[in-house]
Amino acid sequence: QVQLVESGGGLVQPGGSLRLSCAASGRIFSASAMGWYRQAPGKERELVAVMSSGGSTNYADSVKGRFTISRDNAKTTVYLQMNSLKPEDTAVYYCHMGGSGVDYWGKGTLVTVSS
């Protein structure tokens, strides 16, 4: 059984930065794709960024150049560095582990961008 625990959310002013972390239990972290999704109030959950087990990345157009996903396989942790935050980045951010037969979600961490 895999557990994903996000941390690092909070209130930040526009233009500020936050770093989210997602700590994973289990033995399949290094073999799995890890991603961050977000869901704003009244909207559907959307992909923010994903990193494959091999290190390739994909980002939503809305965050390219501002957000960076990274992973530390030794710590079984994935990170999302968020810079130049905008009010429209306000959402609950969810960590996801995916792959063949793998589909796990964290409970989410709230990011609020407001002055």
Describe the structure.
With 115 residues, the chain is mostly beta strands. The protein contains no helices and eleven strands. Strands 2, 4, 5, 6, 9, 10 and 11 form a seven-stranded mixed β-sheet that branches. Strand 5 (46-51) and strand 6 (57-59) form a beta hairpin. The chain has strands spanning 4-7, 10-12, 18-24, 33-39, 46-51, 57-59, 67-72, 77-82, 91-99, 102-105, 109-113. It starts with a strand and ends with a strand.
Say how many strands there are. 11
Classify the secondary structure makeup into a structural class: mainly beta
Give the count of helical stretches. Answer: 0
Strand count, sense and barrel status of the largest sheet are:
7 strands, mixed
Q: Determine the fraction of residues in helical runs and give it as a percent range.
A: under 10%
**Sequence stretches where pLDDT stays below 50 over 5 or more residues:** none
Order of helices and strands: EEEEEEEEEEE
Straight-line distance between termini: 40 Å
Radius of gyration: 13 Å
Question: What global shape is seen?
Answer: globular
Roughly what fraction of the amino acids lie in strands? over 45%
Rounded mean pLDDT score? 96
Provide keyphrases for this structure.
115 residues, mainly beta, four-stranded antiparallel sheet
